[in-house]
Amino acid sequence: MHELNISQWVNEYGDQLYRYALPRVSDSEIAKDLVQDTFLAAWRNVDKYKGEASEKNWLFTILKNKIIDYYRKASTRNEERISDVNEDAYYFNDDGHWSEKAAPNDWGVDYNEPINQKEFYEIVEKCKKKLKEIQNAVFSMKYLEGYESEEICKELNITPSNYWVLLHRAKVQLRACLEKNWFIQ
Prior knowledge:
CATH topology of the largest domain: Arc Repressor Mutant, subunit A
Structural class: mainly alpha
Number of helices: 7
Low-confidence stretches: 78-87
Strand content: under 5%
Largest sheet: none
Order of helices and strands: HHHHHHH
CATH class of the largest domain: Mainly Alpha
Shape: globular
Mean pLDDT: 80
CATH architecture of the largest domain: Orthogonal Bundle
Number of strands: 0
Distance between the termini: 60 Å
CATH superfamily of the largest domain: Winged helix-like DNA-binding domain superfamily/Winged helix DNA-binding domain
Helix content: 55-70%
Number of domains: 2
């Protein structure tokens, strides 16, 4: 049996877990709560830990599940099913890429510059906070977590058409927010 160092979890992994959770939920208090829930769940289930993964990986796995649970609850808590796909449909083609008529402007940003990168991601986080919880969940799971569409639908208990509408609307709203707050037209 692997000897766990429970008393050191917060010091060793707390900041890393928080930095992982924050961009995925876009709210520092929720991220803190999820990390705290992660430690609590791990402590409660310490007798089930088999040592097959490192302590750190085990905690991150618990946190990932807590994030999914958070979004699953959010999807049933305050979102109705969306059936109207026509709104803003001209932005994207059938493959989900920007259409030629609505393609973003050349924003002239050098993303290799560290200051630009930091400022850009700060604006992205502010813009993500403006999304509805379910939109943020779908966007984060797709583009930050790398989940497949089918997995997202299953985890959030949404239909594929609802998924695509939510993702579409998240992209449109993020684009508008970025163009307003970051890029000079």
